[in-house]
User: Fold these one by one.
Assistant:
Number 1:
Amino acid sequence: QVQLVESGGGLVQAGGSLMLPCAASGFTFSIYAMGWFRQAPGKEREFVGRISGSGGTTVYADSVKGRFIISRDNAKNTVYLQMNSLKPEDTAVYYCARKKSGLVGVRVSDHDYWGQGTQVTVSS
């Protein structure tokens, strides 16, 4: 049974940092690229970034480029989202997701399993 569990969310001041881990189980973690998405109230879920199975390649949305870093520890079956220089507009529920093989990975539909999400609130 595939499971993805995000944690680490909370309230942080603008300019601050937060680290979100996503613990994976039920599949061979190291061969799957993993994505991060976020969704604010009343808005569609949007792509934040992704990381290749080996961890050697990362891709980020323009809105977070230079501020967020995705990493993974395959020995721990965990992917991380390090968020720096946070802005109020980063406030959202953050989700990790497993990317389907052979797909680009920027669309929600490119992913087949999702975590439950963790709330990140950035105060001004």
Number 2:
Amino acid sequence: QVQLVESGGGSVQPGSSLRLSCAASGFTLEQHAVGWFRRAPGKEREGVACIASSSASFFYAGSVKGRFTVLRDSAKNAVYLQMNNLKPEDAADYYCAAEYLGGCPRRGISETMFETWGLGTQVTVSS
């Protein structure tokens, strides 16, 4: 029915790039804010990036700002997370989540803001 599916994860070397996809089915993702979260071993889940439903505002965690970019492709009913200059600290399971008519607070995003979640995709960054 209503689903989000992440893809594009993999194993890369530091300094490499990776593009994660968040594809929606059963609903129109364009009507939703989409947040990206990650969970690394031994760490709490962290809100990494967000694009508002209007696409007029964004959020990026300080640790990824300047390296990660969120893009929306309404024709494909998908949102992407472009990750450049990856660091070992970026290794984690990445999740996308959607919030109907949601926004992206500049101070940060919370899991409680989002109603629909994908199952995640794994990113490994190592030499």
Number 3:
Amino acid sequence: QVQLVETGGGLVQAGGSLRLSCAASGRTSYTMAWFRQAPGADREFVAAITRNTDTTYYADSVTGRFSISRENTKNTMTLQMSSLKPEDAAVYYCAGRGPNYSGGYFSLKQYDFWGQGTQVTVSS
């Protein structure tokens, strides 16, 4: 299996920026994504990016503020976050999947590989 490790989380004031990175060991994943989970809440979709076309998808809540990218050869993925809001505070998880999926970019059930998560805290 592919193993994923997230880095870059921390404390930032509202309106600030953070850059999260995900490093993958083993094979390069196909579609990869970022999810987030606040205390007591369900894990929710943030952004996704495909392998062959680099097509990106974003949750409505982050469109225009977050940018997802990947470097397939180096097995890395990045989430650049700007104009952060208090409601963006959560543990952010890197997710990946193999070749036997089609669509379903927004669903937790469509991903096989998960990182341990990195904490993002946004203060007012």
Number 4:
Amino acid sequence: QVQLVESGGGSVQAGGSLRLSCAASRRTFSSYSMGWFRQPPGKEREFVAGIWSGGPIYYADSVKGRFTISRDNAKNTLYLQMNAMKPEDTAIYYCAAGALWAAQLMNGSMYPYWGQGTQVTVSS
């Protein structure tokens, strides 16, 4: 029903930047909560950032001050600007969407729609 496609992944040196995009189908995009999650090698999926349709934004402590989540409803696109990247940021990054309450943003199990993921690799 809602398709999400991530792009912008790749390799970067520590301290560098990448900008991820998540293109969504137009239906109900502006009313959906959106989130970014990542799965580092050998670890479980973890929350990165989420933005509620009503305004609140949450970040994982590990990315606060370095990553910025934003959305452009006119373009049906979610973004994740990643600056000052560290090797521990290496992971497959996924975008997700759902009609969620703000308090549910950090819980990946609450998102019914997911993209295919994009690989991000940060070297020392």
